[in-house]
């Protein structure tokens, strides 16, 4: 079983070929592909974790769609002062499919 742990949008994700991952918005090239930096690579019995060897490994992914996450409501309230504030946020996300680990 071959898999890798990649840095994807500020977080780390364990991916195999064919895995679909949702991460923070990333820019793709003109073909709709991106490369993700590997943090760890497991190839059967061999585990690679040093930076020199990981620089040679490329994890490629195909962008499926750009989307927005669920709405998060931020509310602030202070008692007896009349202060209340309401704010919403929707995170920009990208859904990608892993196409290769080399």
From TrEMBL:
<keyword id="KW-0694">RNA-binding</keyword>
<keyword id="KW-0687">Ribonucleoprotein</keyword>
<comment type="function">
    <text>This protein binds to 23S rRNA in the presence of protein L20.</text>
</comment>
<dbReference type="Pfam" id="PF00829">
    <property type="entry name" value="Ribosomal_L21p"/>
</dbReference>
<keyword id="KW-0689">Ribosomal protein</keyword>
<protein>
    <recommendedName>
        <fullName>Large ribosomal subunit protein bL21</fullName>
    </recommendedName>
</protein>
<dbReference type="InterPro" id="IPR001787">
    <property type="entry name" value="Ribosomal_bL21"/>
</dbReference>
<dbReference type="GO" id="GO:0019843">
    <property type="term" value="F:rRNA binding"/>
</dbReference>
<comment type="similarity">
    <text>Belongs to the bacterial ribosomal protein bL21 family.</text>
</comment>
<dbReference type="GO" id="GO:0005840">
    <property type="term" value="C:ribosome"/>
</dbReference>
<comment type="subunit">
    <text>Part of the 50S ribosomal subunit. Contacts protein L20.</text>
</comment>
<dbReference type="GO" id="GO:0006412">
    <property type="term" value="P:translation"/>
</dbReference>
<dbReference type="GO" id="GO:0005737">
    <property type="term" value="C:cytoplasm"/>
</dbReference>
<dbReference type="InterPro" id="IPR028909">
    <property type="entry name" value="bL21-like"/>
</dbReference>
<dbReference type="GO" id="GO:0003735">
    <property type="term" value="F:structural constituent of ribosome"/>
</dbReference>
<keyword id="KW-0699">rRNA-binding</keyword>
<dbReference type="InterPro" id="IPR036164">
    <property type="entry name" value="bL21-like_sf"/>
</dbReference>
<dbReference type="InterPro" id="IPR018258">
    <property type="entry name" value="Ribosomal_bL21_CS"/>
</dbReference>
<dbReference type="GO" id="GO:1990904">
    <property type="term" value="C:ribonucleoprotein complex"/>
</dbReference>
